[in-house]
Write a structure and sequence with these properties.
By secondary structure, the chain is mostly helical. It has eight helices and no strands. Helix 2 packs antiparallel against helix 3, helix 2 runs parallel beside helix 4 and helix 2 runs parallel beside helix 5.
Length: about 170
């Protein structure tokens, strides 16, 4: 996250042998779940029968992260085909999505421990645009005239989808 251009070059050198879901997304989602529960425990939100509501809240957040990964990966692949006129490559699309979600995972961990600083999450999450910009340039053959539009579309998906999924599961389904 600190030097995305350098990190994307390293990621590019490991393609196509990297399984982003298994080596990055699933472990970070599990870590987020543990930290969410730990944060709730430290704030004393488990007493008085709130354990199951805390557990359910953690499951909804983790599910939102996983669904975001799969929906955005699929959407990026479709955007590559339709907008950039490139061939389908789900591995490349999931690599861009998974590693671009590093900021989302970090902010989820941070806000789980310090929920009073949620305003910083809303501000800092826009850094994902810069991460995606560097990722698109490094691992996808995107022409310069399409790079900004493609970056903004992918970034918008990464910012909006987790909110929508969390809202649907937390407010409407449960």
């Amino acid at each position: 996250m600190v030097q995305p251009a350098d990190e994307w070059e390293q990621i590019k050198s490991s393609l196509p042998h990297v399984d982003v879901a298994r080596t990055f997304v699933y472990p970070l989602t599990a870590i987020c779940g543990v930290v969410i529960l730990l944060g709730q425990l430290l704030r004393g939100e488990w007493g008085g029968g709130h354990f199951f509501s805390s557990l359910l809240s953690m499951l909804v957040r983790c599910l939102a992260l996983l669904i975001t990964y799969f929906l955005v990966s699929w959407s990026v692949n479709q955007l590559r085909v339709r907008y950039l006129h490139q061939k389908e490559d789900m591995l490349l699309s999931s690599t861009l999505t998974g590693f671009s979600m590093a900021l989302t995972f970090a902010l989820t961990l941070f806000v789980s421990l310090f929920p009073e600083l949620v305003l910083f999450k809303w501000i800092l999450q826009f850094y994902v645009v810069y991460i995606v910009w560097n990722g698109v340039r490094a691992i996808m053959d995107v022409e310069e005239n399409s790079q900004m539009t493609f970056t903004l579309l992918v970034s918008a998906l990464l910012l909006i989808v987790p909110f929508v999924v969390y809202f649907v599961f937390d407010k409407l389904v449960l």
